[in-house]
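Order emerges. As here.
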Amino acid sequence: MTRAILLAAASGIALTGAVYADAHSGKSITVVSWGGAYTKSQVEAYHKPWIEQTGNKIVSEDYNGGLAEIKAQVEAGNVTWDIVDVELSDAVRACDEGLAEELDMSALPDGADGTPAAEDFIAGTLDVPCAVPTIVWSTIFAYDKEKMEDGPTTMADFFDTEKFPGKRGLRKSPKANLEMALIADGVAADEVYDVLGTDEGVDRAFAKLDSIKDDVVWWEAGAQPPQLLADGEVAMTTAYNGRIFNAVAAEDKPFEIVWDGQIWDLDLWIIPKGAPNKEAAMDFLKFSTGTQALADQASWISYGPTRKSSSPLVGSYDGKPDLKMGPQMPTAPDNFKNALQNDFEFWADNQDELNERFNAWLAS
C-alpha cells in the first residue's frame, strides 16, 4: 500500500511557523481511497485545505476497494483507518453488517446557497445511514485514437473482436462486467437488472463474457487501464472515466471515451466502526462534502459533485482554462443517453454469490 503523510511541506502549503507547529501538535487521521488521479483530486480539494484550516495531519492510504480490510480491522478490534472512500454497494453492506458508524446527517453543512444538506444532495444519495456521497463516477470503455481510426461507438463494439481485433482490458470483478455484457448482447439498459436477477440472465451475461475471455487482460487497480492502453497491451479497456480523462488532460494521451452503456455509480465516505479518531474524521467528512470542496474536486477530475449547489461552481480543468469540465462529467446530457445506474441493492444482495461464480469462471 502507498502511504504518504501529508504534512505542510509534503502538500506544498505555505504556512507560517505557528500554524506549522500546530500541524505537528494536531490530530492525525488516516484517509483511505483509491490512489492515482482520484486521490490527487481529493488531496487538492479536501486534504490540503483541511490541513491548513485545522492544523491537523492526514495519513493517506490507497486500497483496491471492498470491505475485507475494514471487516478484518473491526472484527479484530484493531481499527487503524478513520475514514474510507467506498462504492455504494459496499457502503450498504458496511451499514448492514455493522462495520461503519451511523452518521448524523443533520450535522452536514448547508449548501453555499443556503439550501439544507438534505435537499442539496442529489435525491436519494443520503439514504444510506452511515455514508455520505461525494461524487458521481462511471465505468466506461476507451481506446487509443491514434491506433484505431474508425473506432468503436457502442458497447456491442467492445465485444466484437472480429470488427475490432485486439485484446480487451476488464476489471477483475463481476461488477459492471455482467451489466456491460448484457447491454452488448442487446438488453436495454433499463432492463439489465431484471434480466440479471434471473439464473438465465446470469448465464447469458457469462456466455457473452465467454466470447472475449481468451482476449481479456485483467486489471484490478484503477491506474492500470490507461497504462494498458498507453503500452499497447490492449485495443480497448474498461476504466473509471476520471482515469481516462486524467490521462488525456494531464498527460496528453490520445484516448477516447465511449460513453454508450456506461455504468454510473456513487462514491461515499464511511467511518469504520471504532475508528480511533472519529471526531476529527467527522470534521473532515463535513468539510470535504461541502459545496466548495466538491466543486473544487471536479476541477481536478471528471467526476460529478453530489451537491446541486456545487455544479454552478465547477469551472475549467486546473491549468487548462479552455478545458471546461462540465462536458467531461458522466452526467453531461450527451454522455448520459444510454447510461445505467449501478443497482447497489442488487450487488449488496448478490455480490458474494456472483463473486464466487466469477472466480470459478475465471479458473475454468
